[in-house]
Amino acid sequence: TGMKQYETRSRQTHHRGLVAIHAGKTFNEDGYDNVKYLPFNEHVEVPLSRRWSGLSIEDFPTGVILAVAELTDCLLMDEDLIGSMPAQELALGDWEAGRWAYKLENVQMLSQPVAASGKMGFWNWEATDEDLDSITLPRPE
């Protein structure tokens, strides 16, 4: 949805460059409820309850690659970093001191989700040219 710039994780990564955004096989209903009712404020242009009105859990794909992005940085979460984040970013991740924030830039949705089993952590996805036909990011060699 383009609603966040950081992916929060428990482990640091040294990877920089193109990454695929994968929706896991299961849906986090608690996370959905937390985000759906995020109040309107200066960081949320349209209240999510309105943006997502009429959507149900079944409307969110699982087990697919949805987008690609450039992973440009990996930041250790400390009180200063956490305090600098807007409310929407905080609502969309696990912002606990000592964890890591992966900075994502140039996020681009695929024209169609691509089925992929996924794995824990980083893994190699063998994308076809057809999978990537709608993106403009540099493709890996």
Question: Major beta sheet, specifics?
Answer: 4 strands, antiparallel
Shape: globular
Structural class computed from helices and strand pairing: alpha+beta
Count helical runs: 4
- The helix/strand order is EEHHEHHE
Radius of gyration based on Cα positions: 16 Å
Helix content: 10-25%
Biggest sheet strand order reads 1-4-3-2
Strand content: 25-35%
Unreliable segments of 5+ consecutive residues: none
Mean pLDDT: 78
**Intertermini distance:** 28 Å
Number of separate strands: 4
Please sum up the structure shown:
With 141 residues, the protein is an alpha+beta fold. Helix content is 16%, strand content 28%.
Word description of this protein:
This protein has 141 residues and is an alpha+beta fold. The protein has helices spanning 29-36, 48-51, 79-84, 87-91; strands at residues 6-9, 17-23, 64-76, 100-115. Strands 1-4-3-2 form a 4-stranded antiparallel sheet, with no helix packed on it. The mean pLDDT is 78.
Set out the fold topology.
Elements lengths: L5 E4 L7 E7 L5 H8 L11 H4 L12 E13 L2 H6 L2 H5 L8 E16 L26
Antiparallel strand pairs: 1-4, 2-3, 3-4
